[in-house]
Give the backbone structure.
Amino acid sequence: QVQLAESGGGLVQAGGSLRLSCTASISIFSIDVMGWYRQAPGKQRELVAARHNGGATSYADSVRGRFTVSRDNAKNTVYLQMNSLKPEDTAVYYCKANPYRGLTSWGQGTQVTVSS
């Protein structure tokens, strides 16, 4: 099973930026889709952004234009650049990998807190 290591969360003021990283234990070319999800207290986990191996990306309406998902193939890492952060972006952010073979994997989660 793919192991995912996340980093980059923290506390930031509204309007600020953070970049999350998710590094996979296997070649990123072995993964069909890597996505970022978030879960706020009392709410369901929701998809924030996803990047397909072929290059296509998708975003939740609430983050489109503010967040950007990208990857570094040499580092087997996917990034989530978050700009113009809002208090409602506060959540635990999780990385998810759907490999071509094997089970879906989740990262351990990283806390993002945006203060007003």
